[in-house]
Write a structure and sequence with these properties.
Elements: H1 2-25, H2 31-52, H3 59-68, H4 77-96, H5 106-117, H6 148-161, H7 166-180, H8 187-201, H9 214-227, H10 231-255
């Protein structure tokens, strides 16, 4: 059974590579198309990543806040800042996308965290947590805060040394960061940002995790926690990556018809 799943994962990776190769053959894409796709992905990522964490601002409201700077009635300042900060952090990872995974440092991870908690929790923004925390909805014990600096250094060392498929590097970075839970808040959002930075650096589109898929998303990570079996988690993430490639590929193909 596990062997069949591993074959399925490898087939999915091959399919992703083939679609990405096809997409690359169509580059350079029209400037206006790239601009529209980037703006669409930015809104989707900002909305979805925050909605997963409980932010109640809708997708259309997210677009108004990010694109027009409009304040939405009935929504808290914290929720507005979560939206604005995440959109800004997406712009920041795009500036890092021309570099490689070996250029990602602990300083950059802290900078990303500072950006998403700026104005929300300035005391903890960009700093490792100093208290014990629990993962909501899970019995998994998270690392003692005193171990965070060493665990994060090991994390960076692994990132710089690993040579597995770049999509799996990005996906595994997401899981590993959530597992360490280095910050008092914002770990999921940072994990998704870092995963997407690595995908951009490898010339892939970014992954969007729809809030309606949160149970499957969480279940995949919990399966890794329980049995160290990544197959369910990898399949979920890779299928979402393929969806993103399909969006770019379909849009590109329409422009040449």
């Amino acid at each position: 059974m596990k062997q069949n799943m591993e074959i399925k994962i490898q087939n999915l990776i091959n399919q992703i590579d083939e679609k990405q190769k096809q997409l690359n053959s169509l580059r350079p894409l029209p400037t206006e198309l790239v601009k529209n796709l980037n703006e669409w992905f930015k809104i989707e990522q900002t909305y979805c990543s925050n909605a997963i964490e409980g932010n109640t601002i809708t997708k259309s409201e997210t677009a108004l806040i990010v694109e027009k700077g409009i304040t939405v009635s009935g929504k808290s300042l914290k929720e507005h800042l979560e939206i604005k900060n995440y959109a800004f952090a997406i712009d920041y990872i795009k500036t890092l996308s021309k570099k490689t995974k070996n250029n990602i440092t602990l300083k950059i991870i802290k900078e990303l965290h500072f950006l998403i908690l700026k104005g929300i929790d300035d005391a903890n923004a960009g700093t490792w947590r100093k208290v014990e925390v629990k993962s909501l909805g899970s019995d998994t014990k998270l690392p003692d805060p005193i171990k965070i600096p060493d665990l994060m250094q090991e994390f960076i060392n692994w990132l710089h040394q690993t040579n597995i498929h770049p999509a799996l590097v990005a996906i595994d970075v997401h899981y590993k960061l959530v597992k360490i839970h280095p910050f008092i808040d914002g770990n999921g959002r940072i994990a998704r940002l870092l995963m997407n930075l690595l995908l951009l650096q490898a010339d892939f589109p970014t992954i969007i995790i729809d809030p309606k898929d949160k149970p499957e998303y969480i279940s995949g990570m919990q399966e890794v926690d329980k049995s160290n079996d990544f197959t369910k988690y990898h399949l979920f993430m890779l299928k979402n990556l393929e969806k993103s490639i399909d969006i770019y590929l379909n849009a590109a193909l329409k422009t040449i018809k």
